[in-house]
Amino acid sequence: MILITGVTRGLGRAMVTEFAKLGHTVAGCGRSPTAIEALAQQVGKPHDFAAVDVADDAAVAGWAERVLAEVGVPDLVVNNAALINRNAPLWQVSANEFSEVIDVNLKGVANVIRHFAPPMLERRHGVIVNFSSGWGRSTSPEVAPYCATKWAIEGLTQALAQELPAGMAAVALNPGVINTEMLQSCFGAGAAGYPTPERWARAAVPFLLKLGPRDTGRPQTAPS
Ligand SMILES: NC(=O)c1ccc[n+]([C@@H]2O[C@H](COP(=O)([O-])OP(=O)(O)OC[C@H]3O[C@@H](n4cnc5c(N)ncnc54)[C@H](OP(=O)(O)O)[C@@H]3O)[C@@H](O)[C@H]2O)c1
């Protein structure tokens, strides 16, 4: 079973189609209930979609309890959900917007790991992939809050890899540059020159499925 956060659009939505096509059962979440309902209609059973905000630890706890009982223990967790701040120099980013980016991109990942990892640890099996970015390894102006979270994801993931038992893996993944709403927010019209999420997922999903214990703690970049 594959668990994916942020499945209502962009890379998450494209991964759902591709994993399902390859015969995997997917459980996913996003915040928008209408988008989640539409996705459930389109993809159908045995896949499972829920309106959950990963920044809400109690909501993630409830989601995990139900998914673990009804769908099963994940073989692969893909922490994909994230936000980017509106382009602005750091001193112009409000405290609220800064907190929102940290709450989703960093604390949201920890929330998902807190509630889904224990049964994976019991089985000593499974891979946890945390989506990083080129901006988790380099920086640009006007996206400082986002860069801060993705650099943090790299560190969090390496420390997690040191904690996991043999047989499991934690990997920070830079997906590359793909034309999604997030890219349109930071690149503007320039985003149109990059591949679609559907094209990206055709190469990225087989790559994700091959990640295993030998990759743990080693930063990865998806094929383009
Ligand atoms: N696109 C790129 O070129 C690129 C480059 C580097 C890294 N990345 C990373 O790749 C991942 C996917 O990005 P994307 O480009 O596909 O972004 P996107 O098009 O903006 O999609 C983000 C997804 O995350 C969901 N989401 C946001 N906040 C959430 C929350 N609190 N709880 C649950 N779901 C939430 C959104 O749905 P709702 O709004 O319905 O919640 C949406 O489904 C992110 O981690 C991003 O940082 C992307």
Q: What is the ordering of alpha helices and beta strands?
A: EHEHEHEHEHEHHE
Query: Average pLDDT value?
Result: 98
| Helical content class | 40-55%
| Approximate shape | globular
Q: Gyration radius, to the nearest Å?
A: 16 Å
What is the count of β-strands? 7
**pLDDT < 50 stretches:** none
Strand content: 5-15%
Biggest sheet: strands side by side, in what order?
3-2-1-4-5-6-7
Structure described in brief:
This protein has 224 residues and is an alpha/beta fold. The chain has helices spanning 10-21, 33-43, 57-70, 95-123, 144-163, 181-187, 197-210, and strands at residues 2-5, 26-30, 48-51, 76-79, 126-131, 168-174, 220-221. Bound molecules: NADP nicotinamide-adenine-dinucleotide phosphate.
Verbal overview:
The protein has seven helices and seven strands. With 224 residues, it is of the alpha/beta class. The mean pLDDT is 98. Helix 4 (95-123) links the parallel strand 4 (76-79) and strand 5. Helix content is 48%, strand content 14%. Residues 5-12, 29-32, 35, 53-55, 80-83, 104, 108, 131, 133, 175, 177-178, 180-183 line the site of NADP nicotinamide-adenine-dinucleotide phosphate (NAP).
Key terms for this structure?
globular, binds NADP nicotinamide-adenine-dinucleotide phosphate, 14% strand, alpha/beta, 224 residues
